[in-house]
Known about the structure:
The chain is mostly helical. It has helices at residues 2-12, 23-56, 77-84, 87-119, 125-134, 144-153, 160-164, 171-181, 186-194, 199-210, 212-227, 231-236, 245-252, 259-279, 281-293.
Amino acid sequence: MAATLTETSLDARPSYGPAAPGGKGARRRSDVRMHVLLIIASVVTIFPFYAMIVISLQPGEAIKFPDALFPSDISFSSYEQAVGSQNIPRWIANSTIYSVVSVVLVLLFASMAGYAFAKKRFFGRELLFWVFVAMLMIPYHLTIIPQYIIVGQLGGLNTMWGMIVPTIANAQAMFLMRQFIQDVPDELIDAARIDGAGEFRVYWSIVLPQTKPILATLGTFVFLWHWNDFLWPLVAQQSPANYVLTVGINSLQQQEVPLATVMAAAVITFVPALLVFIVLQRYFVRGVMMSGLK
């Protein structure tokens, strides 16, 4: 009887049969195809940067394609002309001021607003918060015309402050700060208030140090966005002396400036953004993940 049950149970076990022929080979071929596609995508992505750098290293002569993509002679004269010009160093300074000041002000006001929405109780808090969130649904380009009119009426056109002020009210930064500050323990804030700390002291000494990761993430995003910003600086600035690098390089294309010099200026524009990304890469990736989770 026992033998019969054993044989029956053995016979009842499902038979999966031999492994499918070529299973590992099929997966290997799939991996090879995926790697080939990724290599092609990488080459297509890197090619514009390669062309920009190679053309910027051409001597001061007519550039012919595709020969210019495989140069035999390399010269740094284009960089000397770019750095030695009157406008490009001024444009670099303008871009630096525009980016750095905007980062400081955006982080300051976004953290203050995030603290208020996360830890304070006041009438209309939820309604006001969702009004801010609704601003994220409005395309940025739709606000350019009213923003231009308001700044113009305030006398801010063709000034640095007129270019910076409209960009510091960042609803996305406020939203991320609010979400992060909500996780700060209320016990820390209550303990500080019991010790006699005022609201600003609680914000500056208790809340702000707890938000260093999100501050670094937002700082990276805001700097890259302002450094590469083109549309608003183009609209807000009419004088070449007040151009940022992106607008200045665009104006060079309308002048009789050698293409190699234009590409050298583009490389100079690209390098600071690349260095910031390399140094703060882990914060940038974390910010992408947080943006996807919100």
